[in-house]
Amino acid sequence: MRGCFSGSGRVFCKGACTVKTKKLLAIVLAAVMAIAAVPAIVFAADGPELQIKSLPDTVKAGQQYEFTVGAANCGDLTGKMVKGTFTYDTSMVEKLEYYETAGDAGWMELKGNEFGPAGTGFPLMDLTSRFRVTFKEAVDDYSFAVQIVAIDGGAVLAQTTASIDVVPSHTHTAQYVAAEDATCTDDGNTAYWYCTGCGKYFSDEALTVEIEPEATVIAKLGHNAVKTEPKDATCTEDGNIAYWYCDRCGKYFSDEALTVEIEPEAIVITKLGHNAVKTEPKDATCTEDGNIAYWYCDQCGKYFSDEALTVEIEPEATVITKLGHNAVKVEAKEPTATEDGNTAYWYCEQCGKYFSDEALTVEIALEDTILPATGETETPTEPETPTGEDGTQTPADEQPDTGDSALPMFAGLAAVSGLALLALRRRRK
Ligand SMILES: [Zn+2]
Ligand SMILES: [Zn+2]
Ligand SMILES: [Zn+2]
Ligand SMILES: [Zn+2]
Hints:
By secondary structure, the chain is mostly beta strands. It folds into 5 domains: 18-167, Immunoglobulin-like; 174-218, no CATH class; 225-269, no CATH class; 276-320, no CATH class; 327-428, no CATH class. It is 6% helix and 34% strand. The protein has 2 helices and 37 strands. The protein has helices at residues 398-402, 408-428, and strands at 18-21, 26-28, 49-53, 58-60, 64-72, 81-87, 93-100, 106-109, 114-115, 122-123, 127-135, 141-150, 156-167, 174-177, 188-189, 192-195, 201-202, 210-211, 217-218, 225-228, 239-240, 243-246, 251-253, 261-262, 268-269, 276-279, 290-291, 294-297, 302-304, 312-313, 319-320, 327-330, 341-342, 345-348, 353-355, 363-364, 370-371. The strands form 11 sheets. Strands 4, 6, 9, 10, 12 and 13 form a 6-stranded mixed β-sheet that branches. A 5-stranded antiparallel β-sheet has the order 3-5-11-7-8, with no helix packed on it. Strands 14-16-17-18 form a 4-stranded antiparallel β-sheet, with no helix packed on it. A hairpin with a 7-residue loop joins strand 29 and strand 30 (312-313). The longest helix has 21 residues, at 408-428. The radius of gyration is 69 Å and the shape is rod-shaped. The structure holds zinc ion (4 copies). The site of one zinc ion (ZN) has 6 residues, from loops.
């Protein structure tokens, strides 16, 4: 401020000048002469005037406003050593600066209320000095005064006051943020209003209750996961790997730490499908079971009666039980001189086998049953023996073998009746 308010001019200053009067801006200029200091000019008609200029009636908090303080009409007081004093509430001012012309110092922050050299002061002159001010946010109406005070005696030579209306830097632009529930992995929040202009949070729509951003947060819940044990797939049912499922968010994880999320499909081990092999049908025999055609899966051990494997059957249902022999006994027959005889035997017409016992346990060949003819030809009844073309022997042939030649007639009768029996038997076969 050195050099400001200094210069040549008239010596006499007196009275007060109101530069501007409005509702919110009033500038009062007052000059008080100190009789002891400047006795000759105490009641001079004119005196130095101070003017605050360029400051709007209404200013916004947080913004920088430049204004000037001009001294004029210094007259005979020109050159008198003075100091300048700002009177203001520092708690409402963010920053007050002055422009220092000396040494091209530029804008300097005003520390304390006084400007100009504290001890010697500066010479008063008609001059305009530049200032700038930034008000704090919470300030409403505000006024401050500027005085020019004489160094010798401290008399106030000139004074002016400015009253201004300080409004907030902006009107809150509130955005409503709806409440949102917390999830397993994401924080939720309470309902709140947020001003995009100043970045403040409010809990009420009227924006009267400011809150901290943290107060809106509802902490995330974390997963509520339960493990499912692994299960092998079968022919007809899917299996699964071991996995963890959170019933709160419906997510699946492959690890207990729940760090590897997987798709639900990824837990499935697809069913294998049957590995069925067909067994061809086989007829039952006298001694061995047969079977129907069937399909057997060696994975699950199941039996099916159809190739599509849709009709499952019991293993027993594939079996065709063995038939058992259907044997007929052939009675024993003595050989004759010319005809073979045979032992008693059993013949099964189903399997064509011969057995020597009724229990059908001793299988024999047909040849084993033959009793060869005796080869003796002396028999009177021979011509009468009606041996058939099939070589069937008659009991009459046996008669000569007995050596009982004393009963030829009886033997002949017996031969006839024996022939009749054989004929009957043959027809039955
Ligand atoms: Zn705001
Ligand atoms: Zn979860
Ligand atoms: Zn199977
Ligand atoms: Zn048989």
